[in-house]
Structure formats: C-alpha cells, structure tokens
Design brief:
single chain; 8 helices; 39% helix; 7-stranded mixed beta sheet; alpha/beta
Length: 215
C-alpha cells in the first residue's frame, strides 16, 4: 500500500493531484507486480519517487520539449508531466514490458506524453527527438556516460538534468572534463524541493554548449 499523500503534494500538483494519486496507485500495484518498482518501495512511493521527481520542475524552463532517457516506471517524466502540463514530454525506454506498462498508465491518466521504445544511443531514436530543450535521467548511469547519451538530443543551450544522490559533487569533479569533451558546459549541482521533500532532490545540470567553428 502507498503511504498517505504528503501535504506538499497539493502544492506541487494543484488540481492534478488526483491524477498523481492514481499514478501512485499504478506504481504500487501493477508497477510492483510487473517488476518496475521493488515491493519495498511501495510504502515510500511519494517522498522517494513521485515528489522527489516532480520537484525537479523547478529547474525546467517553461514550455520545454523534454526527453526522459531510461524512463523505467516513468520517473521523472510522468511526475513532471503531472506537475507541469506546459511541457512536451517523450519517455525513452528500451524494455518492451516497461514500454507496455508506461503506455497503459499514460492512457489511463490521459496525459499527452509519448513513449519511444529504444535506447538513447540509437541513431534513429536521436534523429526523432533531437533539438530538445531538456533531457532528464534518473539513476541511469554515471555522469560521463549520461552526457554521451543525452547531450546529442539537445539543442545548443539545452539542459541535461540528471537526478542524482548525495555523491553528485564528487561525480561532477570526476567527470567534468569528460562532459566538456562531449559538448557540455560546466556541470553544476542544484537542490530542488527544499520545502517539499526532505532531503531535497539533488540534480546535476549541464548545458549543451554551441560547437565552435573552426578557422
């Protein structure tokens, strides 16, 4: 069973809170049954997963085209779609069983979110969704590998937003040079949702820098 809905959820989702509650119910029922969420996560589904992802909206620009890489159970893409109806979102996920579940949930919630079955590094997937304003990823891979997968989706000036844990500063220090070689700017660590979730969500933000012309 899911935990009681935290008070901060109403602030984040507004009149779409009932949809967020319905999503939570999907996660702790069919999401657990079909292996998208571990059974131990069900009691903390709001704080650890739904709100932890939704508050990332604080660093997402208005009306952004957003690609969520390795979406899994729709995290952070679906909470962002619920919190920010101004966003245009596509979820990229390689596993067919997860894709089927995502499509079922999105249809049930009535969200204008697309699902792409594929891997971020596949050229065809990149071609379909390139020019994005934002790419998100949560618990997918180390920063240098994420940059290789995510930065090619972005327009110059677009943002890669990686949802990370407390080790984010060390990861930035380790991988900043690799990120620069891949076309990213200086990574920065941001904390989101300080009044909503405890601890706040930690994200690494990287801007895609324009390529310098030779000559």
């Amino acid at each position: 069973m899911a935990e009681d809905v935290p008070g901060g959820a109403a602030k984040v989702f507004g009149d779409r809170l009932p949809l967020a509650e319905r999503y939570a119910e999907h996660l702790v029922t069919s999401g657990v049954d079909r292996g998208l969420i571990g059974p131990r996560e069900a009691p903390r589904i709001w704080e650890r997963h739904i709100l932890n992802c939704a508050v990332v909206a604080e660093v997402v620009p208005d009306a952004a085209r957003l690609v969520d890489v390795g979406s899994g159970a729709g995290l952070p893409g679906i909470p962002l779609a619920l919190a920010r109806p101004d966003l245009g979102i596509v979820l990229v996920e390689p596993l067919s069983r997860r894709v089927d579940w995502l499509r079922e949930v999105i249809d049930d919630l009535g969200l204008p979110v697309e699902v792409e079955r594929g891997r971020a590094e596949e050229p065809a997937v990149r071609r379909r969704w390139e020019g994005a304003d934002v790419v998100t990823a949560r618990a997918v891979a180390p920063l240098h590998r994420l940059a290789a997968w995510c930065l090619p989706f972005l327009r110059p000036g677009g943002l890669m937003i990686a949802v990370k844990g407390e080790s984010a500063p060390e990861e930035v220090e380790r991988d900043a040079a690799a990120v620069a070689r891949l076309g990213g700017g200086t990574p920065r660590v941001e904390r989101c949702g300080g009044t909503i979730v405890d601890p706040p969500s930690t994200v690494i933000v990287v801007e895609r820098v324009p390529r310098r012309r030779k000559g």
